[in-house]
Amino acid sequence: MTRSVSAPDGETLVRPVTPRLALRKSLARLSVRPRSIIVLSAVPVLAITAGIIGWLLDWRLGVDSAVYRAGALTLLHGDPLYDSSTLAPEPWWALLPFTYPPTAALLFVPLAAVPTQVAWGVLTAISVLAMALVIRVTIGSLPKPVDDSRWWSSPARATLVFSVVMLGLEPVWRTVFLGQINLILMALVVVDVLVISARDSRAGGILVGVAAAVKLTPLIFVVHLFLTGKRKAAARALATFAGLEGLMLLLIPSDTIRYWTKTVSDTGRIGPVHWAGNQSLNGLMNRVTDLAPWASKAAIGVSALLAIPAVWLMLRFHRRGQALAALLVSAFFALLASPISWSHHWVWAVPLIVLLIARLPRTRAGDAWRRWVGTGAVIAVFISCVLLVLPNGRNIELHWKFWQGVLGNAYILMPLVLAAVLVTRWMLRRRRRIREAAPS
């Protein structure tokens, strides 16, 4: 490869373009600096290194990643996934049931090639890179800052800073600590909805379908794609999900039938719904009603009622060209409506915080304090680790005092308060416009 340059005397010279130079030019177009890549890749390298050391020293790394790996080994050995509360390949310190769809076991097969602790390191490395990708796509979906001197005017620098800072959020570090896949699933959805489907690509919806095949909650984004006019992408997502489940029906028919007829509705395999860590409406209703037999049904009813304003708010953001905000409405509604939403599922706080911080410089002077307080409150909720400080476990949550109940359900209250503020502000502005338009 060559390029033409002008010499001082006007003569045109032809110089070879080395692979290194070509790489630098490509990174420049993407606003990604080699130094940023080196810094960002340090955490994944450290994670894999820690996994290898943990394997050599027999550390207990990644309870959930150990279950993922055990599910893959069980599938490869031809043993049943759901017949018992534990799997034979699980280490003694991670004896938990396999609660995921059969497709998840198939997609976890690569983890079976490495020891348990190394599998944790690999998942951690991928998770950190997935979070960085989410942050980069989030920044790219926002309006460019007016003031180029702002530090976030450089997507590469902002992605690097946010990626490091966001490791301090409880949902993020707990996902990493447990060896969970929440950050990876979030990246699949964000890239699909905000990039691939947004460009009307024929691949739109496929990543959402894959995410839903691993954990069922991402099925909400099939509805999101459909309601936002991406109906072909929604159909592809549903077809991908059904195709993967159909494949498992051919491979392991007994396990697949058992999952969809019994296991999928058995929340007891996941854990007690009233635990403090379950930050869903179902968990809230069971806590405040002292495990009343109608609590879960009441949670479903409340979720159905909340679906109306949620769809309205989501479509309003979508029609105003705010695709990220619309996606976040769907994501947080899914967390509220899901029967089980452990605190580490709330990694959607990452793009939300990026969005809130990016809006601060464009705030009018009179409203600045409100946005600063609101943004600070959201960050405080997810960085405070309040769920770890409050007394919990052994049914203690059923006897919380009022103030403990407020703090212990902070994740649930946060999107509800934000939505209430947005709807109230819209109503006040609408009333003001009507008043101003009325003849005097």
Automatic annotation (TrEMBL):
Coiled coil: none
Keywords in alphabetical order: Cell membrane, Membrane, Transferase, Transmembrane, Transmembrane helix
Entry's localization field: Cell membrane
Membrane topology classification: Multi-pass membrane protein
This protein's record includes keyword Transmembrane: yes
Transmembrane segments: 37-57, 92-111, 118-139, 176-198, 204-227, 294-315, 322-339, 345-360, 372-390, 410-428
Pfam families found in the cross-reference section: GT87
InterPro entries: GT87
Family: Belongs to the glycosyltransferase 87 family.
Protein name per the record: Glycosyltransferase 87 family protein
Species assigned in the record: Amycolatopsis cynarae
Organism lineage string: Bacteria, Bacillati, Actinomycetota, Actinomycetes, Pseudonocardiales
